[in-house]
Specification:
This protein is an alpha/beta fold and 153 residues long. It is 48% helix and 15% strand. α2 runs parallel beside α4 and α4 packs parallel to α5. Bound molecules: nicotinamide-adenine-dinucleotide. The site of nicotinamide-adenine-dinucleotide has 24 residues, from α1, β2 and α4.
Amino acid sequence: MERKTALITGGSGYLGVHLAKELNQRGWRVISLDLKPHTKCFNVAYRGDVRDKDILTQIFKSYKIDTVFHLAGRIEVGESFKEPTVFYDHNLAGTCNLLHMMATHGVKNIVYSSSAAVYKQQDEILRKIVRLLITLRMVIRNMLQNVQYGIPV
Ligand SMILES: NC(=O)c1ccc[n+]([C@@H]2O[C@H](COP(=O)([O-])OP(=O)(O)OC[C@H]3O[C@@H](n4cnc5c(N)ncnc54)[C@H](O)[C@@H]3O)[C@@H](O)[C@H]2O)c1
């Protein structure tokens, strides 16, 4: 049987490293794309940004990717409040770019991990943070549904 190939975005992160080890054990070839340096658990590691079309083109042209595990994103709750546009850029623009490039290269399978945090809306500041993160999640969910129905992002 042909070996399956996974692209993990955010492969240097907490979940990415565990996922890579698991996929390796199951015989997958694992490629990662992350802004940060990589550990050794990847067959191929790209240091780069999901918002960068050139690097995604290079990856999708070089490998037949079966499934993208999209874990790249900014997750720091406090920072998301201080720099909301930076978060929109990484998480929303990054996902949009990735989906567009996947469609361009005929890659159909994506596993998207949304928010790690569970929020209790205690005060006004937390309410604002929650609104931002919920908005991001809803927009990305809509984008994924559109792609599923063949509507381009
Ligand atoms: N850790 C958990 O328990 C958990 C649970 C549920 C959902 N999630 C979600 O899974 C995802 C990953 O979580 P994590 O705990 O591994 O986070 P993490 O911060 O450890 O890893 C995220 C990785 O994404 C990379 N990254 C950020 N922006 C990038 C960009 N523009 N291009 C390329 N790489 C970029 C970072 O460098 C980092 O290595 C997040 O969306 C998080 O909300 C995590």
